[in-house]
Design a protein that fits this description.
With 587 residues, this protein is mainly beta. It is built from three helices and 30 strands. It has a 17-stranded antiparallel β-sheet, with no helix packed on it. It is globular and about 85 Å long.
Length: 587
């Protein structure tokens, strides 16, 4: 019965101009733009059962915004070969900017359902809101590539980046990098080793920056309040302080070292690549506490540091290669360990709260990003129906006889022990088949949806109802009684094994013999299935462990970066399963 329509008009522009001088110098200038207009109309009629129950008339919302983004890149490249030496030098300047204007109108108590959103001025109650944001980026960059005999390779680059999102004194930062590679397989002493046709050792070091904060977050701003009632009883729009001045906010920086080895065997039939990396991130962009007299509890600051260390392994090969049959496969496996090194004057920062202010996720010195936090559950009290928590607050984790907030501890880690994927391709005559299977092993998920399922106003999972404490089932319960206050406390009851193996993509195709149909050079019929099957742990009670309630970029309403809020499932919509049949024809 409700109406919810969104219409978007979008135009994308990409163009470039390129010129070559003396066969050695190339000048290139690119320009891209993105124009977006979005209009959303929502209307709830008075005949909606909920409207009838609440005795309200029609309700309407109009949301419109205009986006405009552009980017311009200008580079000049010099390339030259001097005997056994090869040199390439590039310099460039880039600039980009983005703007968004938003208008939101809301109306309640519209007397006629027939006018929908087209005459909201008839409504008894109307509110409006407008907004504007902008940001800009500017960079100067340079890069040098050098090669000697194709054996010894060197690359160095440096860029100076500036962002309007950061504080006035720290908008710009410099990020250098350098890399060395040795093609051992090209050395003369490798000529007699027929089995090895590629052997390359490489190492690199570089510094990158992150300025992923909301525009205007470093400025002292004022936020509007829809209605503020003044002393004489007149209701008017008002303002209040939005952000504290934060001109010292600067780039979050990551310094990374890599060492890698590549090897190819048997004329490319088998290839392996292994990389070790170590990276340290400093000046983390996080919400940190400020004195209460400021009127705020936290503000975005550069706080602390963390490290990531890991290994990436990639194996690929062609096991069978004949005139009629070919089979190849690729396996990649990664292992990463991260640790919070410093949080300024804090030992922890809460990243995710449950209802009632219960901390469920924290950044803690000495623990990984994605540490889940709460009580360790040891069972259900058969007499009261409350959860029994482990007593860990005494010295060295020994019991002290009482359960307090100090007994909350690390109850899980959202970082997997191993993750990666397996892909394979099989071709037999004109038939072909390919598949991709991503996997994750050893990661924990905090199932907030399970917590919500225990409340009386939300449909509960059968898993809960079948294993909840009741007077008839006091001894074998996994979950507390319906009236227990321990439902709303963060605990290991909600932490589950998030390991999975997914048949992510399966494609089968058939290519018609050439020249079978006159005028058609190639014709292939194929069928593709996506997300065909999911193998998951029996311990996980949600829909899909390969989801997250928070993206890897941006911040939440409080300013906490979403990238540190890992492993939470708030009844997220599972990945869809799709089937596609297609036909490729080349004339």
């Amino acid at each position: 019965m409700n109406t919810n329509e969104t219409v978007r008009d979008r135009a994308l522009l990409n163009t470039y101009v390129q010129a070559s001088l003396f066969d050695k110098i190339t000048i290139k200038s690119t320009f891209g733009a993105d124009f977006l207009f979005s209009k959303t109309h929502e209307f709830i009629p008075s005949t909606n059962p909920v409207s009838i129950r609440d005795d309200v008339k029609g309700q309407a919302d109009i949301n419109r915004f205009n986006d405009f983004e552009w980017i311009n890149e200008n580079t000049i490249n010099y390339s030259q070969v001097f005997g056994d030496h090869s040199l390439s030098v590039l310099g460039g300047v880039t600039a980009q900017a983005g703007f968004r204007e938003t208008i939101i109108l809301a109306a309640n108590e519209i007397p006629s359902d027939g006018v929908t959103v087209n005459s909201i001025e008839l409504a008894e109650i109307t509110t409006m809101q407008s907004d504007y944001i902008e940001d800009a980026w500017f960079s100067v960059l340079g890069r040098v590539n050098y090669s000697y005999l194709g054996k010894y390779l060197f690359t160095a680059s440096v860029r100076r980046d500036g962002s309007s999102r950061l504080g006035g004194d720290n908008k710009y930062a410099t990020f250098p990098s350098a890399a060395l590679a040795w093609n051992i397989g090209n050395e003369s002493f490798m000529e007699d080793i027929d089995a090895i046709d590629k052997l390359k050792l490489r190492t690199s070091y570089g510094v990158t920056g992150n300025a992923d904060v909301s525009p205007f977050s470093t400025l002292a701003t004022l936020n509007t309040v829809a209605i503020a009632t003044i002393l004489d009883g007149t209701s008017v729009a008002g303002v209040r302080q939005g952000n504290l001045n934060n001109s010292g906010l600067k780039w979050e920086t990551t310094a990374q070292t890599d060492i890698g080895l590549e090897i190819g065997l048997f004329n490319g039939r088998l290839n392996a690549e292994i990389d070790y990396y170590y990276k340290k991130t400093t000046d983390l962009l996080l919400d940190a506490e400020v004195p209460p007299h400021t009127g705020f509890s936290t503000t975005l600051q550069n706080v602390g540091s963390l490290k990531n260390e890991g290994i990436d392994l990639n194996l690929s090969g062609t096991m069978i290669r004949t005139n009629d049959l070919e089979w190849s496969a690729t396996l990649n496996i990664s292992k990463n360990k991260n640790t919070v090194l410093d949080l300024g004057n804090k030992t922890f920062i809460v990243t995710q709260n449950l209802r009632g202010g219960q901390p469920a996720g924290q950044l803690m010195v000495g623990q990984p990003v994605g540490a889940l936090f709460g009580y360790v559950v040891e069972g259900v009290n058969s007499e009261t129906g409350d959860l029994i928590y482990k007593d860990v607050s005494g010295p060295d984790g020994t019991p002290d006889g009482t359960i307090t907030v100090d007994d909350r501890t690390v109850i899980g880690d959202a970082t997997p022990d191993l993750y990666g994927g397996f892909s394979t391709t099989l071709k037999y005559k004109n038939f072909d088949m390919s598949a991709f299977l991503p996997f994750s092993y050893g990661n924990d998920i905090y199932n907030i949806g399970l917590l919500w399922g225990g409340e009386q106003n939300v449909n509960a999972l059968a898993e809960i109802r079948d294993n909840m404490w009741t007077e008839a089932n006091p001894d074998n319960a996994r979950y507390p009684g319906a009236a227990s206050g321990t439902w709303l406390e963060s605990s290991s009851n909600y932490v589950m094994d998030g390991s999975f193996l997914r048949l992510g993509t399966l494609q089968v195709g058939y290519t018609l013999p050439k020249n079978l149909i006159k005028g058609i050079r190639n014709c292939r019929l194929y069928a593709t299935a996506t997300n065909l099957y999911l193998f998951k742990s029996d311990d996980y009670k949600g829909y899909d462990p390969d989801v997250s309630s928070f993206s890897d970029s941006g911040t939440d309403a409080s300013g906490t970066p979403n990238s540190v809020k890992r492993g939470f499932d708030q009844i997220e919509y599972p990945q869809n399963r799709s089937f596609v049949i297609g036909l490729d024809i080349t004339f």
